[in-house]
# Entry
Amino acid sequence: MAARFDASVSPPRDAYERKRLAEVGPESWNNPEPSAPCQLVIVGAGSAGLAAADVAAALGVRVAVIERHLIGGTCFNTGCVPSKALLRTAAVYAEMRHAEHYGARAPATVEVDFAAAMTRLRRIRSHLTHSTSVRHLVASGVDVFFGNTQFTGPDSLTVNGQPLQFGKALIATGARPQMPDIPGLRQAGFLTNATVFDIAELPPRLLVIGGGPLGCEAAQAFGRFGAKVTIVQDMPLFLPHEERDAAQTLSEAFARDGIEVRLNTHVVAVRVEGGEKVVELVSDDYHSTIRVDAILVGVGRQPNVQGLALEAAGVDYDEAAGIAVNDHLRSSNPRIFAAGDVCLEAKFTDIAEESARLAVRNALLGGRERLSERIVPWCTYTDPEIAHVGLYVREANARGIPIKTYTLPMHQVDRAITDGEQEGFVKLHVSEGSDHILGATIVSRDAGDMISQVTLAMVAGVGLRTLAKVIHAYPTKTEAIREAAMAYNRTRLTPRVLARLRRKLAP
Amino acid sequence: MPTLCSLPDDAMLDRLQRAAFGYFTETMNPRNGLIPDTSRPKSPVSIAVVGFALSCYPVAVARGWIARAEAVRRSLLALRFFHASDQSGSPTATGYKGFYYHFLDIDSGARMWRSELSMIDSALLIAGMLTAATWFDADSADEAELRELADALYRRVDWRWSQDDARTIYQGWKPESGYLHYGWEGYSEAIVLYALALGSPTHPVSTDCYAGWVSTYQWENLYGQDFLYAGPLFVHHYSQAWIDLRGIRDPFMREKRSDYFENSRRAVLVQSRYAELNPREFAGYDRNCWGLSACDGPTDEQVETSHEPRRLFGYAARGVPYGPDDGTLSPPAVLTSLPFAPELALVALRNMLMRHPGILTDDRLATSFNASVTDHAGRVWISPGHYGLDQGMVCMMIENHRSGLLWHCLRRCAPLVRGLRLAGFAGGWLDANDGGVC
# Structure
């Protein structure tokens, strides 16, 4: 089996790839000649860099963007976009296999066309270049440079040796996959998010190292394509930052998809035997060995701070935590700001973009906006999805904030039942004794979309009393949010209140 | 003999309780007082089950089922065994630092199944020892020896070591790999563990340890009930087999204006509602047929299912509403809800007994059944044999419901009371209690 597996990671240079690369990283690009100092230079054209360029261009300032590799960065090229495209195809195969659950006849055999899934991925990624491209940037008045950036002073840098003066700078160089220190891993070869979307063939047996968002999404997707997936996590639960109950629901979903789950387990060594990757695992005192065709590493991301000569600009940084910024996203050099994965612990596209917009306004308009005041949701796109906004219960407890949770299991929601998607829940966390929303976690197939209603309520300062008045089209899964809010209203009907009502309503 | 279901409540409970106690007398190793985990062949000893046995002997004496001297003799057998046991912490020892491995060989007392040195199971064993020491208060040589041994065994437990440098107590330790990865976090059956660990006169845990445990509590409104969430029923029961948590409150429960006893009652209401909603559409679930808890269950290897293929979990801590749930219910978990919600528990138990008479063998309850899983003859899956944990909990909780014997006994256990106070418990009997005899 292993001998037949094509482990190459070079994507076919089809029309889709040619178009994408021409749009986001043209080979014959000539950097412009800087005629005057830029008011803002943005280092990195990933999610944060592009959002920053958009704001700066709209403000009419002279702005330059420098990209080392491809416009769009991780999210567009090797992250959110390709992974969501792949997850969608994987979900179709899962539904085909479980068709009887929906009252439909399952095909006698489900044959997976992995190449077709990858072609669709490339087509979608190529299609989306209409808003993520050099052309788009240039059209909005941005000077685009490709090359390596090195700071040469507090207000100067070079791009491939070409000097550039700036008034303000924003560093948005993102992050790269973190490499676990496992003997033999490098020699055996492994995949990361940077390469997994370019594989030519579905690995029959895949080991996923890491139970964070990337590892969980990939494990489920490849499992649904038919790979025999084992996921190894060195902690007691998946998604350690999320609520226990969310992780529990995910564990059950993994089991249903036939994924072998190894929690509390460390990978201690990898070697190659007869073309197979032989992986040694240890859980407490239990040693085991598994043989796989490919290994995907998703143990976290490391900020891209190397090679920038940040010392020359007086920008403080740490190899693990990235560029040191204050709540206004200003670095130790008051001219230089940072945004996105290179400086933030939460490495999500939405936070990267919002932090970039905020940093640009603070840099160019002298604003004093604080990132901590932003209410930012995030989502892990497993099936079911796991979305969160605001405080977790453990954070509230740690801060001494009395907190109460209104929980509505999805099996109490008519539309979830008709859709055969009862697993999951809506949890609204409020300040005890009030209807003030502190945070929420939603686990549902559409949790990423549903969480926006709670985010909106939090941004608008709307409490559960108002949420309970919001009429939802029937039947929809977002009714769960209203039902949870109505549960709050019912707790206001204390025995004393009810007695008063009864007296008032008595004939 | 009339069927159980035809008897009035108290007569039915008496027979169930006596049969549950009979597990200990029937299965005890007469050479060392150790009790097996289950009635199945070659079962190892579960140290927690020994703790339950030690707690049930006073009940049996009070009920006239065995003589006081016989109860003391049985208790002394176990206490002398543990006192003399190998505490080197080697892979084949019995224990380390005053704790014990979860499973032991019933003859040699050596560790079995490469099990962990278990903090919670050791605590349940120690709770049983202290129960015996508190109840057997006569001025006789045997009872004096019993009290001295229990005191020595409690004093030698190094609770502080079980915390290491963490904020909470670790769940276990293995000689091959050290502490297990995880500590006691989130609401669980561990109140008795923390109370004993805090009240230790020799090696107490740090005073902020209990707050560390509480910091991961979740206070939820679910199915119209405000309660401290925990999915499986046994979590809401175990500590209250010994500790009377009616009307006494720690800072968390004071803030929520509730107590753990009331919380367990609400947990029953949540279970009943979940079973009524029956989201996974299992056979037999309804408002009077519930009981998701830690118990044995069918596995894919054992049976064919009567429904679409589902994943079966074997022995697992089943819970509501997030699962795991494979259609397996635990009648003993329903019966041990008796003190908290007597009407609901009795109706549900009678309902189960009438539907599935096979869950009862000589008045003793099987740990679980699964009506969604049937064999070729259409018979519902029922866990074979009996589990000592169930029998201990049934015996103790029926007694607490009937007389409160164990609750009143442990109110006089000084270190437990001290531990509760150090955890921040106050109010009710705790304020009126001026110390114990232990």
